[in-house]
Fold Protoheme IX farnesyltransferase.
Amino acid sequence: MLQTLRAYVELTKPRILELLLVTTIPVMVFAADGLPDLGLMAAVLIGGALSAGSAGAFNMYIERESDALMERTAQRPLVTGIVSPRAGLTFAWVLAAGSVVWMLTLVGPLPAALSTAGLVLYVAFYTVLLKRRTEQNVVWGGVAGCVPVLVGWSAVRGGIEWPAVVLFLVVFFWTPAHYWPLSIRYRDDYRRAGVPMLGATRAPAYVAVRVIGFAVATVVCSLALPLVAEVSGLYVVTALAAGAGFLFSAYRMRVRDRRGADLRPMLVFRASIVYLAVLFLAVGIDPLLTR
């Protein structure tokens, strides 16, 4: 019973839920100029978790055959048989329906529409349409991962405004710089499964340069927030310091490639996680300390 429960939790891809928490809570605090209504925050997080969990379950159902070919995903529940494909698909649909009803009832029509759009983008646009057709899959498919920013903002403010757009773009440009180093680390897996991730289709030098480019775009977008919203020096200093660390990590991967050394791409992958967490922590703390 416990093993089955853990398997269903794994179907929701809990690490995607971490991104939901890291971005949604700070954005809601920033949009409210302080602590938002805690009931609203809880409703957004639960609805977002249902939607993201549904997306993860649909993804594992669709990719169960290719997952079996990859060392990194060979122990997923639909591959090992702990959960049957039919049960996994049913679970995905139940979470999807639950997320729509929950968001419509307790949050509002615009956040519900955005949350549903994010789900459809991840499942249909990224998983089905793009992932096996283009090496730029995570660039455009990553739009789905940016949606929680818009959901959180619209839940508080009732619409989409420029600060939400800027933070959306931060996550948009961050996503390839985050995932491409991972694709270098697992390039043999992706090649075996026939998935054209950039790290599997291009030389490491090519990937490293593009990681730097997207990291630069991410940091530039983060520094655009003071142009469209009131922020303190705390946010600016944090954005500069965290951005410098992220860029340095990406640059070091390129230097290691030039020297013929081990690229150590997972260092960039982990640095990107730290960067996003620190930046959005500053987004959430700034209004609490300065307004």
